[in-house]
Amino acid sequence: MRLTTGEKVFSVLNYLFFIVVMLLMIYPFWYMIMGSFSDSAYVADGGFFLTPAGFSLAAYKAVLQNVSILSGFKVTVISTVGGTVIGTFLTATTAYAISKKRLRGRMIFSFLILFTMLFSGGLIPSYLLVKELNMIDTYWALILPSAIGAWNIFVMQSFFRGIPEELEEAAKIDGANDLTVFFRIVLPLSKAVLATIGLFIAVWYWNDFFSSVLYVTEKDMWQLQMVLKDLISNTSNAIAQAGISISYQGDVNEFTIKMASIIVSSIPILAVYPFLQKHFVKGALIGSVKG
Amino acid sequence: METIQAEASTNKSVTAAASGRPLWKDLVRDKYLYLLLIPGMLLILLFRYAPMYGIVIAFQDYNIFKGVGGSEWVGVGQFTRLFGSPDFYEILRNTVLISVYKLAASFTIPIVLSLLLNELKNLVFKRFTQSVIYLPHFISWVIFSGILISFLNPVDGLINTIITRFGGAPIDFLGSSDYFRSILVVSDVYKEVGWGTIIYLAAIAGVNADLYEAARIDGAHKGQQMWHVTLPAIRPVILILVILSLANILEAGFQQVFLLYSPLVYDVGDILDTYVYRVGIQEANYSYATAVGLFKSLVAMVLIVTVNKLVKLSGQDGLW
């Protein structure tokens, strides 16, 4: 099939368009990376666009010695791992149970789950509940309230429905019960969907800061994103907050510290992104609208 | 969503099949299934349903020391206060406006982008482009707001550095009521536009290739093919996505607004969710804030039920 001149022109323009779009998408990240490596003395002199102004690792040294960033990392890693394990596991168990048509009361359970998508108690009652449960300033408050959600349960359920009944029946004849079927047959067959749901849950926990806003009063229980938010919005405090000694201040300033903190806290997401990518397109499409 | 539909269609047969046997026999037979079900259901009852019970404080003058049992009942007093307050109308208007602007942008731009993406014949280039434009979806709003705040900073932000180099006067974008909503819309599009193309790309991939061939033979050029073949073919997907997002009209993007706004732009940027947070958590006006939240939840529920009806009437499969 020969292309007409018009089609060729369109094609070239189209490639150019996407190159511009990509540059627009990448530039802010590039700018931050350059900013984080910049020498504060030059940054103050006037901007930089493509390459760092001078070169200095001082901002990274400061960030990696920063007590609140390190404690934020610890809190976020623990709540992300805990939340992902608990969330994925309970999503799977719940979804498996309601995927079985023979289960008595299944309609009621499904409705109870579905209804949470339509109506919610809202912010204040949730906050008061966590307070009543004495979970303020604990990992439970960061993990449990959002561990499982209706959407993920229904996505997982639709996947389980696709597993042939015969496999289960064959195992039952060999004397397996529902637990062995679930753990030995269903879960191993569901690695792809478990990975997809698990990754989405993990990203959610990693990016969460609002649980800290609501449920945490002690700064040493702040999630990483909350520490970052504080660092970013408290402009004048950035340096003091980073706990840098006076002698250091020549090399870093508020700006380089902020940029370095942002980069350091994005690295884990960027590191899993290639793996994530394999799964998320599928994840975004499963259970969504039929074409 | 398919699941939820399947649910409805199988409900009848299940009840019929189950009704013949005594309940206890089924409970014993499926004891391990219930064992698997219970922990998740308990979490849902505790963290989703207990707060629904907590809504009763919207009808009280809740005092944290007296608790739900001891606090004074005030009927719909909190709602009278809400509907009588001029703040409420401003906040409702902000919420709806911001979300309608976002809806308009996030419905048109990803469609155009996916049409163009679909024309990229070099698969390596196409995949790379997709990887790049999906990425911002996974970056947290905290980090994103950090980027925006630093770019838009009136003193040394990149944008204002450029403006002053060209002789302009620096602008405090985030502190200006003229710019705030536009910044919300643009940054939201920037972050989510790539992600938004996924579903359209899948729909476009499903369009029958013969249709394009036929159109070509009839002399249709690229633009005409997109307009007369691709768009009509993906119209059902577009329709259902738009209708469904109408149900979320009161969700204007809490995290984004919360991280970017300031008292300077409350007049254009304060939305229902941020209002609930400030009045409820910061000022500890629990009952009043719960009433505001209940208003929002109720409207959202009515919208989603109505919208689901509409989707079904239009001949598509609804949410349930």
Characterise the protein shown here.
The complex is a heterodimer of chains A (291) and B (320). With 291 residues, chain A is mainly α. Chain A is 72% helix and 0% strand. In chain A, helix 3 packs across helix 15 (254-285). Chain A is globular and about 75 Å long. Chain B folds into two domains: 2-58, no CATH class; 79-313, MetI-like (MetI-like fold, Orthogonal Bundle), CATH 1.10.3720. In chain B, strands 1-2 form a two-stranded antiparallel ribbon. Residues 1-16 of chain B have low confidence and may be disordered. Chains A and B meet through helix 1, helix 4, helix 5, helix 6 and helix 8 of A and helix 1, helix 2, helix 3, helix 6 and helix 7 of B.
Relevant CATH superfamily of the largest domain in chain A: MetI-like
Instruction: Count up the domains of chain A.
Output: 2
Low-confidence stretches of chain A: 244-248, 287-291
Order of helices and strands of chain B: HHHEHEHHHHHHHHHHHH
Summarize this, please?
The complex is a heterodimer of chains A (291) and B (320). With 291 residues, chain A is mostly helical.
Short key terms for the protein model shown above:
heterodimer, A: mainly alpha, 2 domains, B: 320 residues, mainly alpha, MetI-like fold, two-stranded antiparallel sheet, 16 helices, 2 strands, 74% helix, globular, disordered N terminus, membrane (chain B), MetI-like (chain B)
